[in-house]
Write a structure and sequence with these properties.
The chain has 427 residues and is α/β, with parallel strands linked by helices. The protein has three domains: 164 residues, Adenylosuccinate Synthetase, subunit A, domain 1 (Adenylosuccinate Synthetase, Chain A, domain 1); 92 residues, Orthogonal Bundle (Adenylosuccinate Synthetase, subunit A, domain 2); 162 residues, Alpha-Beta Complex (Adenylosuccinate Synthetase, Chain A, domain 3). The protein is 32% helix and 21% strand. The chain contains twelve helices and 20 strands. The protein has a ten-stranded mixed sheet with strand order 9-7-5-2-10-1-11-15-19-20, sandwiched between helices. Strands 14, 16, 17 and 18 form a four-stranded mixed sheet that branches. It has a two-stranded antiparallel sheet with strand order 3-4. The longest helix has 23 residues. The relative contact order is 0.15. It binds inosinic acid.
Length: 427
């Protein structure tokens, strides 16, 4: 009766899926607790690469149930497309393998239109334009439509129609934009709800029953703590709880069951979208860490294809994330990308407003003024892609990991050294 939690420890795209795959082998349930189809990770099945945005990765494991929890927001049209892609790769999806919480909120066509409209103005935040913020806005405003409404497709379609008509007035009034076709929206969403209806469930009861039965539940975080609505670099954040509290509020499970919390971080830092990034690198070193886009693992977004911003590892950020979430273990991804650099830097503090600090400033404007204080370490030149144990890593690589542990207060217990499924260090 335990919950293992995997969380993004930076600004997202850390490679969480790799470790879900490796650590959830005995999980009876893999559950998403936050976000929507703004998330993205690629899974390789045979010679096919499938991009997951909303579906929990438990679908790729026999005998494992996948749950989309109440803390998520669901776009039914996109979900059906994703289900079709996953099926095309030979993976079975049926209502015994996937459950959607009745209490998850729906992303409606109007939410997508409003997200796109705001992104086209100077108030844009660099969102994924998946309607996430506007769906959560309706949830918080207590005017949202929940997934359970799909149980009655006709009434659901009427609600979608009414919502679209209201949004159209707003699009005209605030942005001078033409509206969305409300009849088409209602028709498409009504049709999608007919198909998704059998997948609806009381996932709170289902999860708590499994935990009371002694089953292992794996909680799969999307996005990351620095994108969390409360603890991230507000306002440059997503609209859900991507940190530890989101597990309880987004699944309806009590904290007493959480026994292991793993934070996933790249061996350097990346972020997409706007917002402060103290260790950001430009020029040749930026290109070196980002890659050109020629490789699947280069730093270009799975959901939007956007080039990611890159920088040195920021241990001030990581220390904050470790403390806030109670992370005891860090999983470090893309260690192999650092091979060949003569020296490496880790931000261990910031200079800001005339003083030095080790504390992460929660105000994005203060963070934007921070200059990193770097610890510089020698790099390594030996290829680490074939290494499968921590003991097998080059001495300078081990020293890099020890420096991260010293600066963050968490142990590095897991690592990835290449894009292949087995290029992991698990001990
Ligand atoms: P939204 O979640 O689409 O509203 O976007 C808000 C911010 O979160 C933007 O900076 C996005 O780039 C970022 N974001 C959302 N989802 C992800 C993700 O899965 N990985 C990385 N960044 C994300």
């Amino acid at each position: 009766m335990t919950i293992t939690v995997i969380l993004g420890a930076q600004w997202g795209d850390e490679g969480k899926g790799r470790f879900t795959d490796a650590l959830a082998h005995d999980a009876r349930i893999v559950a998403r607790f936050n976000g929507g189809d703004n998330a993205g990770h690629s899974i390789t099945i045979g010679d096919k690469v499938v991009k997951l945005h909303m579906l929990p990765s438990g679908l790729f494991r026999q005998g494992c149930l996948s749950v989309i929890g109440n803390g998520c927001v669901v776009n039914p049209r996109n979900l059906l497309h994703e289900m079709a892609d996953v099926r095309a790769a030979g993976v079975e999806i049926n209502p015994n393998r996937l459950k959607i919480s009745n209490s998850a909120h729906m992303i409606l066509p109007g939410h997508l239109a409003l997200d796109a409209a705001r992104e086209a103005t100077s108030a844009g935040l660099g969102t994924t334009k998946r309607g996430i913020g506007f769906a959560y806005m309706d949830k918080a405003k207590r005017s949202g439509i929940r997934a359970g409404a799909m149980a009655e497709p006709e009434r659901f379609a009427e609600s979608v129609y009414a919502h679209t008509v209201e949004v159209n007035k707003q699009l005209d009034r605030e942005y001078g934009l033409p509206g969305v076709d409300a009849t088409e929206a209602a028709g498409a969403y009504g049709a999608a709800s007919q198909i998704l209806k059998p997948y609806l469930a009381d996932t709170l009861t289902l999860l708590n029953d499994a935990l009371d039965d002694g089953q292992h539940v794996f909680a799969e975080g999307a996005q990351a703590t620095l994108l969390d609505i409360d603890f991230g670099t507000y306002p440059y954040v997503t609209s859900s709880s991507a940190s530890i509290g989101g597990v309880c509020t987004g699944l309806g499970v009590p904290p007493k069951f959480i026994t292991r919390t793993v934070g996933v971080t790249k061996a350097f830092t990346t972020r997409v979208g706007a917002g402060p990034f103290p260790t950001e690198l430009f020029g040749d070193m930026g290109t070196r860490l980002r890659g050109t886009g020629a490789n699947a693992w280069d730093e270009f977004g799975a959901t939007t294809g956007r080039a990611r911003r890159v920088g040195w590892l920021d241990a001030v950020v990581l220390r904050y994330v470790v403390r806030l979430n109670g992370i005891s273990e860090l999983a470090l991804t893309k260690l192999d990308i650092l091979t060949g650099l003569d020296e490496l830097k880790i931000a261990v503090g910031y200079k800001v407003d005339g003083g030095d600090t080790r504390a992460y400033p929660q105000d994005a404007e203060v963070l934007a003024r921070c200059e990193p204080i770097f610890q510089t370490l020698p790099g390594w030149h030996q290829d680490v892609r074939g290494v499968r144990t921590f003991a097998g890593l080059p001495a300078n690589c081990t020293a890099y990991l020890r420096a991260i542990e010293a600066a963050t207060g968490a142990l590095v217990t897991l690592a990835s050294v290449g894009a292949e499924r087995d290029q992991l260090i698990l001990s």
